TrEMBL record:
Domain Cell envelope-related transcriptional attenuator: 83-277
Gene3D superfamilies to which the protein is assigned, alphabetical: LCP protein
Protein name, as recorded: Anionic cell wall polymer biosynthesis LytR-Cps2A-Psr (LCP) family protein
Pfam family, one: LytR_cpsA_psr
Top-level taxon of the source organism: Bacteria
UniProt family annotation: Belongs to the LytR/CpsA/Psr (LCP) family.
Length: 375
C-alpha cells in the first residue's frame, strides 16, 4: 500500500482543513506548510477499491457533489475482531457550501457481496459485520482495516447506489486523542445516559469498568468498591475527551438505543469541528500543531488521488454551522415483520439515492423529519 495525498474531511471530523486555511490567514504559502505537515503524518491508503468513484484530475477546484465514507471502529489492544461500530456518510452538495452527516444503522440486515480477492463468499448479516469479513484474513492492522473498509464500501454501494469519493477510518482511541488535543468540547446532553464503560469512584475519579451483557439485568462490572456508573445528566457543558467519547458510545440506557447513539456521535463530530475552528484554537500555534499531529495519528485516509489542497480550498466555505445531522428511518427503529431484523425504510433508501444523485438538499426540504437536532 502506498502513501498519497490526503483530504478534506479530516477537517470535517476534526475541524482540521478549515483550521489549516483560516490559521494561514488565507495565504497559500502558510497553508501549504500546515498541509505538508499533515501529509507527513496521516496514513493514506487504498481502501475504497473498485467500489469508488472516478479519480479526479489535479486542479484548484473539485467539481460536483462529494460522498465520503467515515468508519469508526472499537479497536482494543490484542483484539483484531474489527467491526464497524460507527458508519457515517459525509455528503457535500455540488454547491460546496453545506455538509451533511448521514448515520447508517449498524444493525441493518443486508446481503454482503462476495469478494474473491479476500476469500469471502458473501453473507446475510448486519452491516457492521461487513467490515469484519473484510478484515478477518491475516495481515497487519493497517491491511485489515483497509480490507474491511473495501468490503463495507462495496456493501453500501450495492444497497444504496452511492459511489464513494473516498473514506476515512478512525478508532475510538484516535477520537480521544483529537478531543484531548482540543482541550475538550462543548456538548448539549438532551437525554440522561448511564455509562456502560466508566464509573465514578468515591473520591470522584473516573474508573474503567466492563459491561457484562451475559447476565440479567445487564450491568457495569469491574469497578472498585463504592463506585457507581458515570451518569451524563441533561444540560450543556464542556466535556473532556474521556467523558465526551463515553457519552457518544452509549446506547444501552437510551430510549431510542442505537438511533440515539447515532445522534450523539454526530453531535460529537460537530462539536469537534466547532471547537477546532474557534478563535482559541486558530490563534494558538502550539495547539494547531498538536491537533494536526493527533489527526495524523488517528486517521487512515483515501481520497482517490485528489490533492489535499484542492479539498481544503474548494470547501473552505463550509463552516461548522453548515454541518447538518441526518437520521435514517427518521430516527426510529424499522424492524422487518418477516425477519425481525432492522431494515432501512423506502424513504431512507430514497434519501441515500438522493445523496448519490446530488439532490439531497431538495429531499430534505420535502422531508424535514430526517433532520436531527444538532445541539
Amino acid at each position: 500500500m502506498r502513501r498519497r495525498k490526503d483530504p478534506l474531511w479530516a477537517r470535517l471530523l476534526t475541524g482540521f482543513g478549515l483550521v489549516l486555511v483560516m490559521a494561514s490567514g488565507g495565504t497559500l504559502a502558510t497553508a501549504r506548510t500546515l498541509i505538508g505537515q499533515a501529509e507527513d503524518s496521516i496514513t493514506q491508503i487504498d481502501v475504497i477499491g473498485g467500489s469508488g468513484g472516478a479519480e479526479q484530475a489535479e486542479g484548484n477546484d473539485i467539481d460536483g457533489a462529494v460522498n465520503m465514507l467515515l468508519v469508526g471502529i472499537d479497536a482494543r489492544e490484542g483484539d483484531e475482531d474489527y467491526r464497524a461500530d460507527t458508519i457515517i456518510i459525509l455528503h457535500i452538495p455540488e454547491t460546496h457550501d453545506q455538509a451533511y452527516l448521514i448515520s447508517i444503522p449498524r444493525d441493518w440486515m443486508v446481503e454482503i457481496p462476495p469478494n474473491e480477492e479476500f476469500e469471502f463468499p458473501g453473507a446475510t448479516e448486519k452491516i457492521n459485520a461487513a467490515f469484519y469479513y473484510g478484515s478477518r484474513l491475516p495481515g497487519t492492522g493497517l491491511e485489515k482495516r483497509a480490507r474491511g473498509t473495501t468490503v463495507l464500501a462495496a456493501t453500501l454501494r450495492e444497497h444504496t447506489g452511492i459511489e464513494f469519493n473516498g473514506a476515512a477510518v478512525i478508532d475510538f482511541g484516535g477520537f480521544h486523542s483529537i478531543v484531548h488535543a482540543l482541550g475538550g468540547v462543548d456538548m448539549c446532553i438532551v437525554e440522561r445516559a448511564e455509562s456502560v464503560h466508566l464509573g465514578v469512584a468515591p473520591d470522584g475519579k473516573l474508573v474503567q469498568g466492563w459491561y457484562n451483557d451475559q447476565v440479567r439485568p445487564e450491568r457495569l462490572e469491574g469497578l472498585p468498591p463504592g463506585s457507581v456508573p458515570l451518569v451524563h445528566e441533561p444540560g450543556c457543558r464542556s466535556m473532556d475527551a474521556t467523558r465526551a467519547l463515553d457519552y457518544a458510545r452509549i446506547r444501552k440506557s437510551l430510549d431510542n438505543g442505537d438511533y440515539g447513539r447515532q445522534q450523539h456521535q454526530q453531535q460529537l463530530i460537530k462539536a469537534i469541528v466547532k471547537k477546532a475552528t474557534s478563535s482559541g484554537v486558530l490563534t494558538d500555534l502550539g495547539k494547531l500543531n498538536e491537533l494536526v499531529d493527533a489527526a495524523g495519528e488517528a486517521f487512515l485516509l483515501d481520497t482517490r488521488r485528489v490533492p489535499l489542497a484542492d479539498f481544503f480550498f474548494t470547501l473552505k466555505g463550509v463552516a461548522a454551522n453548515d454541518l447538518t445531522l441526518i437520521k435514517t428511518n427518521a430516527g426510529t427503529f424499522n424492524v422487518s415483520a418477516e425477519t425481525g431484523a432492522e431494515q432501512l425504510d423506502a424513504e431512507s433508501l430514497q434519501m441515500l439515492q438522493a445523496a448519490q444523485d446530488g439532490t439531497l438538499t431538495t429531499f430534505l426540504i420535502e422531508h424535514p423529519q430526517y433532520i436531527a437536532n444538532s445541539r
